[in-house]
Amino acid sequence: MIVVGIVLYLLIGGESEDDGLTEKTKVVNVTAYNTVPWQTKKVNPDVAAWGDTLRPGMQAIAVSRDLLYIGLQRNTKVRIEGFEGDFLVLDKMNRRYKNRIDIYMGLDIKAAREWGVKKRSITWKVPIESKYDKRYMYSGEAEEPK
């Protein structure tokens, strides 16, 4: 009877919300930034590249554009080594940066400067067999989609 119950549970919808996703991990350079005009842009420094409004206290990051091609798209949840909880990808960095994320630190310029640049492991999920999964190369390089 128990076996029948388990089979029914799985058939009717006992799947976890993570079904169909695979986890990716990568070591990146991690810097920090603030929403001040001289670090972002002069007009509306709190509005990110995709139009999201950043507010102090949010766990948000900006990603270098090469990381977009391996699945770190807008609203992707990212875990960063040494930090609690998930960060959301809400911003993109200038094209000159590669293999880098920028942690949003609100208006705390001192904390961002003290952070400096560190190497950290990040983890996120992408759909199994997605274009991001197929193009992910474990050497740390990413190809742009064609």
Which properties best describe this structure?
146 residues, disordered C terminus, 6 strands, alpha/beta
Provide a quick synopsis of the model.
With 146 residues, the protein is of the alpha/beta class. It contains four helices and six strands; from the N terminus they run αββαβββαβα.
Task: Walk me through what this model shows.
With 146 residues, the protein is of the alpha/beta class. The protein is built from four helices and six strands, in the order αββαβββαβα. β3 and β4 form a beta hairpin. The termini are far apart.
Which oligomeric state applies?
Answer: single chain
- SS-based structural class? alpha/beta
Beta-strand segment tally: 6
Overall pLDDT confidence: 82
Rg over CA atoms, rounded to whole Å, is 18 Å
Low-confidence spans: 3-16, 136-146
**Number of helical segments with 4 or more residues:** 4
The SSE order reads HEEHEEEHEH
* Sheet having the most strands: 6 strands, mixed, barrel
Topology:
Elements: H1 2-12, E1 21-33, E2 60-63, H2 65-68, E3 77-80, E4 86-92, E5 100-104, H3 109-115, E6 118-127, H4 131-135
Parallel strand pairs: 1-5, 2-4
Antiparallel strand pairs: 1-6, 2-5, 3-4, 3-6
